[in-house]
Design goal:
This protein is α/β, with parallel strands linked by helices. It has 11 helices and 14 strands. Bound molecules: zinc ion. The site of zinc ion (ZN) has 6 residues, from helix 7.
Length: about 400
């Protein structure tokens, strides 16, 4: 197995249209004051004293000032009251809070504690087209964007993993980009800790598919296993595709070098975790409350999930859509990342129809932060409706 090298990493820039650092991710923290810390998921500061720059420290001052303005509503689970009120001078020398606003969003599914964890926000300098719709008429894309007051010369990509604490298990769905795509992303662990969990608390990781923005966070920058106690749940089809001698990537509309990078990363990841894998088929019942749904097309073994407790549900869209406007208004458009564009479109329509008909709440990996919304049918397509916080 060829290890990934710096040159490989530089090719990632092509995949995301030369993504630029997106700056602070101000997703906020809607944790309720009544939520008590769980002793088994003790929060730790993500930056130890002496390991942050002065700029980080100054950011921390801004964070605390903002938190003070809205009171305990913004206090992360596990954060101490003192850390919210200690003098500015103290913070400059020994910050105890994350240097950026916490990127997580809590909600409940029945009795399950759920947290959408941002991996970051990445902005590219070009039009969303052709990345999100290589076959589309650019004038149509520009009009769609303009009608929604969105820029035509800039494109934003969001990344959200989802943590589900059932009381028996702590399940993480996908892991973010890790250190593969630069400083705008790779924030899942920091946000997980800010939400009051440690990587060691994760018992299962569902890999919806083996693309770099979903598996990159499995390893630390030092190439250690980040979630040491977790079993990995992945579709057998997905595993077999990436570990085959020659996975068919002809449907991806990407440079050959980028395809090669995807293939190498998928294969090496499954090799690294071969002793931790639970290979399943959609429909298998491996975790109570989790329905694994065949969503093939984006990749051969791509899965969505329906998470249920009692009468409460949330649908995890995974990568059935990559853009909150274009793939809803024009569901026939397909991203350059889709291995089988025709099947990806068919799957998207099927999934959207089910969500709309059953009026399901949705978490979308690539939907705008915090990734929580609903989908309804409109003339000619669908509409993504961001769900207001706190409902
Ligand atoms: Zn993705």
């Amino acid at each position: 197995m060829q290890p990934l090298n710096a040159n490989d990493h530089s090719k990632i820039a092509n995949v995301y249209n030369e993504l630029h650092a997106a700056g602070n991710h101000a997703l906020g923290n809607p944790a309720k004051p009544s939520q008590a810390a769980k002793p088994t998921h003790t929060a730790k500061p993500s930056h130890a004293a002496g390991q942050v720059s002065r700029r980080d420290a100054l950011r921390a001052v801004g964070l605390v000032a903002g938190a003070a303005a809205i009171g305990s509503y913004a206090m992360p689970r596990g954060a101490s009251a003192r850390s919210m009120t200690q003098p500015v001078a103290d913070l400059l020398t020994s910050p105890t809070e994350p240097a950026e606003p916490a990127g997580f969003y809590r909600f409940k599914v029945g009795s399950f504690d759920c947290v959408a964890l941002s991996d970051g926000v990445a902005v590219s300098s070009g039009s969303p087209q052709p990345t999100f719709a290589p076959d589309a008429d650019k004038a149509d894309i520009d009009k769609l964007l303009s009608d929604r007051y969105l820029p035509m010369d800039r494109s934003t990509m969001y990344f959200h993993t989802l943590l589900i604490d059932t009381g028996e298990t702590v399940v993480l769905i996908d892991t973010g980009c890790g250190d593969l795509t630069g400083p705008a992303t790779g924030k899942v662990e920091a946000n997980l800790r800010a939400a009051g969990y440690t990587p060691e608390a994760i018992t299962h990781i569902v890999i919806t598919h083996a693309h770099l923005d979903h598996i990159g966070g499995l390893l630390t920058p030092g190439k250690a296993k980040r979630y040491a106690n977790a079993r990995l749940i992945v579709s057998r089809t997905e595993h077999d595709f990436w570990t085959s001698p020659t996975p068919d990537l002809s449907g991806l509309r990407m440079p050959d070098d980028t395809k090669k990078f995807f293939a190498t990363l998928g294969k090496s990841t499954f090799e690294t975790f071969k002793d931790s894998l639970d290979l399943i088929q959609p429909g298998d019942k491996i975790l109570p409350g989790f329905e694994f749904i065949d969503a093939k097309g984006h990749t051969p073994g791509h899965m969505s999930l329906l998470i249920t407790d009692g009468n409460d549900v949330v649908f995890n869209l995974a990568d059935c859509a990559h853009h909150f406007l274009l793939m809803f208004a024009r569901p026939e458009y397909s991203a350059i990342y889709d291995a089988d564009p025709t099947q990806a479109v068919a799957t998207r329509r099927k999934v959207f129809d089910r969500i709309a008909a059953d009026r399901l709440n949705v978490v979308g990996y690539h939907m705008p932060s915090p990734g929580f919304g609903n989908i309804r049918r409109i003339a000619g397509g669908y509409e993504w409706l961001p769900r207001p916080w706190g409902l």
